[in-house]
Amino acid sequence: MLEIKQFSKVYRNGKRAVNDLNLTIEEGDLFAFIGHNGAGKTTTIKAIVGILDFEEGDIIIQGTSVKKDPIFCKKQLAYIPDNPDLYDNLTGIQYLNLIADIYEVPKAQRAEIITKYANLFELTLELNNFISSYSHGMKQKLVIISAMVHSPKILVLDEPFVGLDPRAAFSVKQMMKEFCASGGAIFFSTHILEVAEKLCNKIAIIKNGELIAMGNMDDMTKDASLEDVFLELTEHA
Amino acid sequence: MRNTWRLVYNYFLTFIGGFISKKRNARFAMGVLFVLGIATLMIVLFTNTAIATTVQFTQLGVPELAMYSNSFMAILIMLFLTVMRSALPAKTTDEQLLLSLPIKKTQIILAKSLFNYLFDFLSLLGILFPSYIVYAVINQTGISLVFRGLLITLLLPLFSNAIATLIALLFQKIATFFRNYSIVQTILILLLIGGYVLISYVLNDYLLKNNNVDMVLNQFKPMKWILTFVLNGTLLSLLWIALIAFGTYSISILLRVAVFGKEVKSYRSKKIELDFTERKPMWSLYRKEIKYYFSVPIYVINTIFGAIMYVGLSILLLMIKQETLTQILASIRIDASGAEIAFILAAGCLIITTVCTTSSSISLEGKHLWVLKAHPIKVRDIFLAKILVNMTLTTIPIVLMAPVVSIKFGFANLWMFMLIPFLASLVMAILGLYFNLLFPKLEWESEVQPVKQGLSTMVTLFFGFAFVILPFVFYFAFFVTLVNYVLFGLLLVAYFVLWIVFSYTLLHKSGKTHFERL
Predict the structure, then answer these.
(1) Which string of b and e fits A22-58 if b means at least 16 CB within 10 Å?
(2) Which residues span the domain enclosing A172?
(3) Which of A216, B17, B196, B284 could be cross-linked to A101 through a Cys-Cys bond (beta carbons 3.0 to 4.6 Å apart)?
């Protein structure tokens, strides 16, 4: 579903944020991408979703290169940033309609999905208010709803649990499991290793832009905890 | 008081830090130079105006009226700037930090206020103080008048600061009553600007018609106190001014302390039903753009005046006699038949092309640019939505006013009044967007930065003026007697169409690449 081939990103200031990254995410995968601050996680995620352009390597989504047909690729996935900056002057429902219009989601379908997730995240009563009045967690919930509105095949999330209350975090985890169980794939970055360990079937660890480990969660952790594995790998790599 | 001064010093360091951290950025250095240049220009301008006014009224034998006029204008400008600042406040991020520290609220507010005071004082030092020096030099009154003028310059910012606070609090209160508060805020600011223009006009008119100093002074007591203190050193007048300045300032500080740290109420919708109306992506983007435009007062203020002036020009043209226009043209040695039509078109095009929302529209995406980039939106649709906002603002006055102008200047010319300003505006919209893609300013704390200080806005304004004025200059200089105005109109259409083709191609190719690299 999502394939990252020899991807490298060099910023204009000469900094090589990611170097020769290779990853494959298959149907049903719940893939955690972990690494310390500045390791290159967000750079990779931004390149996947089309925010950041890149010259070296390629990213293939559903068999199509993001370089060749970015619109097709974007239609296959949904992105949830860690710190969503939204249009403060729009109401929640206006923002959701904007995203639904962009994906050309029919009225009945958007009504069903928005109602379902807004109820799940207890946001329904806030949707007619301006985003400027939302808290960080509410904005995060709104972006999650907007990500689900077009029923994507792949979800790309950058630190999805930041700012969420325990109930919402639980709902997101449930939603992620259900999404993958129904044939979708999720690629997400996180610093919460316990969540990654419990939730994911695959994991990749990145350090200073280099992939230092990748594989099935069970194979990687064996008898140790993910925290121990992560600390050992990042210390010695 | 030690904490207050420490905080003032901290704000000063933050202000300076903004320059130092970006010292390697050549564009920022250009920006600093530009601001300094504008400041120098303003001082020169105000000094020159003060000289002209003082000389004029001194020759009339009423030099006091010169001081009255200069002081009143400077105070009006100061109040206007203050009102704008209070209506369009910069976002503060230190409120929670300061509240968590062991500092009294009064000390925090006083520090914030004193820092603002410093800026207001410096502004007034450039706007008002030169007029006192000029008065003292021309009328040879001695240095004591200059010192008294300096004292007034020191006191007045206290009053303007107080007014700013009161207006900001009023706006905050109004915000709780309206769903689309930002639109209400924009309208209020436009009314304030209109009021300012009106008062300036009325004052000028009043002073020109009334040379009786006592009568003028008695019309407005605070001005009388300022003048009697500066001119004669009347201590009672100083007492009144100080009482007003310190009194209002103290009240404003107390009010700010009372509301500081308290939750700001915002309008809450009582509507429960959700609207899921489906729209075409392009139309949805356009709606988002137009909503954004009207919700940012500084964006509206900076771009709407061309449209208002265009309507004003059309009405003025309807009211003035055709001979008056012919006389104006004759005074600049243009007396060819139909030249007045070309002149109207030139004025119309120049005015309407000052409406350019696109030159900061990319910059204004700022931190939400990811929404446009991470979703499957065609770049062309993003561009078209932004251009359409610009064209909405210009097409409405053009279409409404073309028949109005045609009443006086012939319905046979209607197509010119409609088509030519429209095409000129379209070129500006496209080029404005292209320049913004070339010089984007995506990191900002207040919309004022991309809208008023963005390089793309300045380049677009300069370029727009040059590209519009060029064909008219050539026509009036060389071809006015040779080329019929209708033929000139057709040539103008061709000129603008060529620009549209060129600029759209540029935007579609190079502009698209720039957008993808953002």
Answers:
(1) ebebeeebbbbbbbeeebbbbbbbbbbbbbbbbeebe
(2) 2-84+154-236
(3) B284
The answer to whether B366 contacts A85, with C-beta atoms less than 8 Å apart, is: yes
Give A25's DSSP letter: E
Q: Which of A89, A146, A154 should we substitute to test contact with B (largest number of B Cβ atoms within 10 Å)?
A: A89
CA distance A111 to A19: 43
Residue ending a domain, among B238, B263, B288, is B263
Give CA–CA dist B38/B32, Å, rounded. Answer: 10
Query: Which residues in chain A are closer than 8 Å to B373, comparing Cβ atoms?
Result: 49-51
Whether residue B269 is contained in a domain is answered as: no
Q: Are residues B329 and B197 in the same domain?
A: no
The domain boundary, picked from B239, B263, B287, lies at: B263
| Closest in B268, B278, B370 to A129, CB measured | B268
Domain count of the fold of chain B: 2
Q: Write out pLDDT tens, residues B413-472.
A: 899 999 999 999 999 999 999 999 998 888 887 787 788 777 888 888 888 888 888 999
Cβ distance A133 to B376 less than 8 Å, yes or no, reads no
User: Is the domain of B251 the same as that of B336?
Assistant: no
Please report, for the domain that includes residue A218, its CATH number.
3.40.50.300
Are B79 and B128 in contact by the 8 Å Cβ rule? The answer is no
Separation CA B507–CA A162 (nearest Å)? 39
Q: Which residues of B408-432 are buried (b: 16+ CB within 10 A; e: fewer)?
A: bbeeebeebbbbbbbbbbbbbbbbb
* Structure token pair of residue B23: 């010292």
Task: Classify B264 as helix, strand or coil.
Answer: coil
Statement to judge: residues B108 and B256 lie in one domain: yes
Q: For residue B284, give how far its alpha carbon lies from the nearest alpha carbon of chain A (Å).
A: 6
Tell me which DSSP letter residue B91 carries.
P
Of residues B182, B276, B374, nearest to A97 (C-beta): B276
Written as one string, the DSSP assignment of B151-196 is: HHHHHHHHHHHHHHHHHHHHHHHHHTT-TTHHHHHHHHHHHHHHHH
Instruction: Give me the interface pTM, i.e. the ipTM.
Output: 0.81
Q: What is the pLDDT of residues A93-152, one digit of tens each?
A: 999 999 999 889 999 999 999 999 999 888 998 898 888 888 888 998 999 999 999 999
Query: Would you say residue B74 lies in a domain?
Result: yes
Q: Closest approach of chain A CAs to the CA of B375, in angstroms?
A: 6
Mutual angle of helices B105-127 and B129-139, in 10-degree steps: 40
Contact between A184 and A154 under an 8 Å Cβ cutoff? The reply is yes
Residues A31-88: tens digit of each pLDDT: 999 988 888 899 999 999 888 888 889 999 988 998 888 889 999 999 998 888 888 8
Co-location of B257 and B304 in the same domain: no
Q: Are B417 and B348 in contact (CB under 8 A)?
A: yes
Which residues in chain A touch residue B280, judged by CB atoms under 8 angstroms apart?
A: 101
Which residues of chain B lie closer than 8 angstroms to A105, CB-CB?
A: 278
Nearest CA in chain A to B285: A98
Together in a domain, B180 and B252: yes
CB A125 within 8 A of CB B271: no
Are β-strands A185-189 and A154-158 bridged in parallel, bridged antiparallel, or unpaired?
Answer: parallel
Beta carbons within 10 angstroms of residue A226's beta carbon: 21
Full domain range(s) for residue B372: 277-518
Q: How many domains does chain A have?
A: 1
Would strands A154-158 and A77-80 be described as parallel, antiparallel, or unpaired? Answer: parallel
Considering all CA atoms of chain A, what is the largest pairwise distance in Å, rounded to the nearest integer?
A: 54
Q: Give every CB contact of residue B151 below 8 A, 6+ residues apart in sequence.
A: B229, B238
User: Is B256 within the bounds of a domain?
Assistant: yes
Closest chain B residue to A134 measured between Cα atoms?
B266
